[in-house]
């Protein structure tokens, strides 16, 4: 794939609310292997362990007072440049990458990405697939919304979320060891492989690189303990 000639409008998921783009095989297998090698070569303190996954922040740690901008290594910055060339963020260059590691049976609860970021998120998946599920926000605590549609994210793929999907739909990854490709998966026609309805895909370890722009940055130390 020649990323310099990629017209992102050709990759819009037309069966979902506005706006999502899905590019299968956005990176090569060699690039995937290089990314995995670099992530796992990072020093142990770079990892933050959560109850259901672990993660790395590159570029700084986002905070509502501003992100102290940090340099991003060249092996990762090349993908920020590729995303920047797609002109998805109003001319702003991405400046933050959140790396999440998901083992089988690990996921993330339904959430919005919030106002700390320019309202576009881009995610490159490596290592394994997952299924990202979407639901409308609950009206109150007693309103438990079930997922209404989902996307299959293949390894080496790029997903872009903007507009209504970014602002108004919660997204989650369920804690499963395998995914069933039922009628809720609405992007199968965009995928690189052909999948039989009802197919079961066993999960392996997946790394996601969520690349985005944090508008509010600072070069000064922030006292995040004060409100």
TrEMBL record:
Superkingdom, taxonomy of origin: Eukaryota
GO cellular component assignments: nucleus
KW Manganese (keyword) present: no
UniProt cofactor(s): Fe(2+)
Cross-referenced PROSITE patterns: FE2OG_OXY
Subcellular location: Nucleus
Statement: the UniProt record of this protein carries the keyword Metal-binding: yes
UniProt family annotation: Belongs to the alkB family.
Name the UniProt record assigns to this protein: Fe2OG dioxygenase domain-containing protein
Organism: Arctia plantaginis
């Amino acid at each position: 794939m020649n990323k310099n000639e990629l017209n992102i409008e050709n990759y819009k998921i037309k069966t979902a609310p506005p706006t999502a783009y899905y590019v299968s095989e956005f990176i090569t297998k060699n690039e995937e292997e290089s990314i995995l090698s670099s992530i796992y070569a990072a020093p142990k303190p770079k990892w933050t362990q959560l109850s259901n996954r672990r993660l790395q922040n590159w570029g700084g740690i986002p905070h509502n007072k501003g992100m102290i901008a940090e340099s991003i290594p060249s092996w990762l910055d090349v993908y920020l440049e590729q995303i920047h060339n797609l002109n998805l963020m109003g001319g702003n260059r991405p400046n933050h990458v959140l790396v999440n590691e998901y083992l089988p049976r690990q996921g993330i609860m339904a959430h919005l990405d919030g106002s700390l970021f320019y309202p576009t998120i881009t995610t490159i998946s490596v290592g394994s697939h997952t299924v990202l599920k979407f639901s409308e926000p609950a009206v109150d605590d007693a309103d438990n919304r079930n997922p209404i549609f989902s996307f299959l994210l293949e390894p080496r793929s790029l997903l872009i979320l903007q507009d209504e999907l970014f602002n108004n739909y919660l997204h989650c990854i369920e804690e499963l060891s395998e995914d069933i490709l039922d009628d809720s998966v609405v992007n199968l026609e965009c995928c690189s492989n052909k999948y039989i309805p009802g197919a079961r895909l066993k999960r392996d370890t997946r790394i996601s690189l969520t690349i985005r722009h944090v508008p509010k940055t600072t070069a000064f130390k922030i006292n995040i303990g004060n409100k």
